[in-house]
Amino acid sequence: MYETCPISLRQTMTYLLIKRRMHTSLKTCFKCGAEKPLDHFYKHKRMKDGHLNKCKECTKLDVAIRYMSPAGSAKVKAYEQARFKTGARKAKAAEYQRTHRKTYADRYKARTAVGNAVRDGRLFRKACEICGSENSQAHHTDYTQPLAVRWFCFEHHRKFAHKQNI
């Protein structure tokens, strides 16, 4: 009976060990050394227990460090530019834009009104209110008044108007 079975005893034992490890509730991160539950590790089908050996926090930190490094940011920029040129990615971006415009119709109308007014000469682009940069963007404090805008450069627009750090 056992001789006809295609799986050897060694393969069976390996399978059982792997299965047992997958049901172990704790795992140690090799980066920080902390023992954490398995749901704190990303799944990875090539690992014996089915999870990466680095916890999610350490993985996110490594990605952020690599992304912010000069060499890493250049690679990421080149990768994203190439990725966006694919047809599927362009279609997804167009679909997202259509959905966003429907969801935030008041914002879309206000931005369009500002763009048209600048183009037609009814509204003039001013320098950034904070640093004086001529390369400025319009910021709406109230979308029901589309031409009542404040002018900020990209950095100050993100930082002060939207509370985002760049």
Structure description:
With 166 residues, the protein is of the alpha+beta class. 50% of the residues lie in helices and 13% in strands. The protein contains 6 helices and 6 strands, in the order αββββααααββα. It has helices spanning 9-22, 56-68, 70-84, 87-103, 105-120, 154-161; strands at 26-28, 35-37, 41-43, 51-55, 137-140, 149-152. A hairpin with an 8-residue loop joins strand 5 and strand 6 (149-152). The longest helix is centred in the middle third of the chain and has 17 residues, at 87-103. It starts with 8 loop residues before the first helix and ends in a 5-residue tail after the last helix. The model has no long low-confidence stretch (mean pLDDT 88).
Radius of gyration computed on alpha carbons: 27 Å
Morphology call: elongated
Largest β sheet strand count, sense and barrel closure: 2 strands, antiparallel
The oligomeric state is single chain
Distance between the termini: 67 Å
Strand arrangement, major sheet: 1-2
Q: How does the helix and strand content classify structurally?
A: alpha+beta
Provide the helix percentage.
40-55%
Number of helices: 6
What is the averaged pLDDT score?
A: 88
**Unreliable stretches covering 5 or more consecutive residues:** none
> In percent, how much strand structure appears in the residues?
5-15%
Q: How many β-strand stretches?
A: 6
Which sequence of SSEs, written as H and E, runs from N to C?
HEEEEHHHHEEH
